[in-house]
Structure prediction request, 260 residues.
Amino acid sequence: MRLLTSLIAATLLGYTANGQTVYLAGDSTMARGGGGSAAPGTDGWGQYLGQYMSIPVVNDAIAGRSARSYTDEGRFNTLINTVKSGDFVIIEFGHNDGMSGSVDNGRQDAFGDGYDTTTTVTNSAGQQIVIHTFPFYIQNAVTALRAKGAIPIVSSQTPTNDWTNGQIGAGPRFVAYAQTAASRTGATYVDHYSYVAQAYDRLGQTAVTAFYPVDHTHTSIVGANVVAQAFVRGLLCGNSALKSKVNSAGQNVPSKRFPP
Prediction:
C-alpha cells in the first residue's frame, strides 16, 4: 500500500511538473485586485480566466505597468526564466503606455510602431534616456518566450467605459500596435478590445457603467468576469492552440461571434 501511494504521488507530481500552464503578463485591468487602493472594489479579468480553462492559470499581471516598465523592471525576464516548453503566455498592455509629457514617467513608449524607432526623453532626475516603441518591447518578449518553447499570445488592451452614440468607440493605437507585434512575430493575436466592446454593446451603457465603480478603466468583479469571458470567446473564434484547453464552462460563454 505504501508503495502504491508513493507511485500515485510521484505520478501526480510528475503531472503537475510536466503539465502546461497559462501565464498572464499585463497591467491592472488584468491583475489581482485591479486598481488596488486607488480603485477599491475592482479586480482584473485575469483572476477569472482560470474557471474557463482546463489547465492552471498564473496571474503575473501588475497594476500600473506598461510594456516598457514590465520589461525594464525585469518582469519579462523573470517570466521567461519561469516558463517551460509548452506553457502559454498571454501578453496584454496598452492602458499605461501613452506619452507622459515633458517628464518621463517610466512607463511611456516611443510613439509609433517601428521596431527600430526610438525617442529620447528626460526622466525626473533630469537624465536623458532612450526609449523604444510598444511593438519593440512586445516583440522582444515574444521572441525570448518562444526560445524557451513557450507559446505567446498577444492580446489587445481592453476598452474603457467610454461611449459614443451608444456604442464603445474605436480602440486606441495600442490595439493596432499589439496586432502589428503579433503579426511580425507570428504569434497568435486576440483582439480582446473588440470582443469586450461587442459584449458591452450588447449589454448596453447603463449595465456596463455599473461595472466601473471608481473610474472608467477598472472593472468590478462582475465586470472583470465579463471581460474574461470575452477573451475566452476570442480564443474560441481564433486558431490558438490554447482554445483546446478551454473547458466546458468556457465553451458556454456568450457565443455571439465577432466578425473575423
Residues 175 and 212 are 21 Å apart (CA to CA).
